[in-house]
Write a structure and sequence with these properties.
The protein is α/β, with parallel strands linked by helices. The protein has two domains: 101 residues, Rossmann fold (3-Layer(aba) Sandwich), CATH 3.40.50; 127 residues, NAD(P)-binding Rossmann-like Domain (Rossmann fold), CATH 3.40.50.720. The chain has ten helices and eleven strands. The protein has a six-stranded parallel beta sheet. Strands 3-2-4 form a three-stranded parallel beta sheet, with helices on both faces. Helix 2 links the parallel strand 2 and strand 3. Helix 1 packs parallel to helix 10 and helix 6 crosses helix 7.
């Protein structure tokens, strides 16, 4: 059995096409152009690539995108001052602070400084709390992308055992909160594993849905996957000038029933969900 490939590039394009129509209707009705402001500190090559792809996606969907580039030696106060300006700018609806930030800057302080209504990454404690309570304002982009991939591939989520490898604030924790909620695309039984988990393979072998978000190249091997499981690979790592995921794709695809590739799996979905959140933010701020 060879797994069905869950094509994140194709699914995200369908979402973006629908979103472009919604953006056009919103602009026609309100005269407002949803505007995402991205902040890039330093010269991290991967971050620069991500920001460019996000900008291009905004433009093709009818959103406005601006990039604020700051030098690597920017102080925390200088960055906070810029965020204050963007918080107060009435024509800016979403603020994206590209991570990672240089070592001299406290990442949590910066993310907390973004006003919750413009926090399109859903990192602010207020937005995280709303997710935990099952009444989100925004859903975090990568976890929401994973959820949408599962739904688009007709994966049975309700009642399934979903095992997440990784407990980050960006993917693991919020995804667990989302999948355990009541409702569409959720109602799963969720186990979160991490670097201190004992007998990891014993747990992953119980998974109907296995989600790898640990940041270690090809960490999930075939002997960790139950035959017929759905495998979602959130990881993106560069090995010998090649992009690979956290899953040993070639081996695991012979065991899983469905699997996401790297690239063109979760990555394009993350961007699509960012665009969706930016439109949502514009709608919320236009109402007020």
């Amino acid at each position: 059995m060879t797994a069905k490939i869950i094509d994140g590039a194709a699914i995200s394009q369908q979402i973006r096409d629908k979103l472009a129509s919604e953006v056009a209707a919103f602009r026609a009705q309100t005269g407002v152009i949803p505007h995402l402001a991205a902040v890039l500190v330093g010269e991290n090559p991967a971050s620069a690539v991500y920001v460019r792809s996000k900008q291009k996606a905004c433009e093709t969907t009818g959103l406005k995108s601006t990039l604020h580039k700051l030098p690597a030696d920017t102080t925390q106060q200088q960055l906070l001052d810029l965020i204050t300006q963007l918080n107060q700018a009435p024509d800016v609806h979403g603020i994206l602070v590209q991570l990672p930030l240089p070592k001299q800057i406290d990442q949590q302080v910066v993310l907390d400084a973004v006003t919750p209504l413009k926090d399109v990454d859903a990192f602010h404690p207020e937005n995280v709390g709303l997710i935990a309570q099952g009444r989100p304002r925004f859903l975090p982009c990568t976890p929401h992308g994973v959820q949408q991939l599962l739904m688009a591939s007709a994966t049975q989520i309700a009642g399934a055992h979903a095992v997440i490898i990784g407990r980050s604030e960006i993917v693991g924790k919020p995804l667990a909160m989302m999948l355990v909620q009541k409702g569409t695309g959720a109602d799963a039984t969720v186990t979160v594993c991490h670097s201190r988990t004992r007998n990891l393979a014993e747990i992953t072998l119980q998974a109907d849905i296995l989600i790898a978000a640990i940041g270690v190249p090809r960490f999930v091997t075939a002997n960790m996957v139950r035959p017929g499981a759905v495998v979602i690979d959130v990881g993106i790592n560069r090995v010998d000038d090649k992009l690979v995921g956290d899953v040993d794709f070639d081996a695991v695809k012979e065991i899983a029933s469905a699997i996401t590739p790297v690239p063109k799996g979760v990555g394009p979905m993350t961007i699509a969900m960012l665009l969706k959140n930016t439109l949502t933010a514009a709608r919320l701020q236009t109402k007020s």
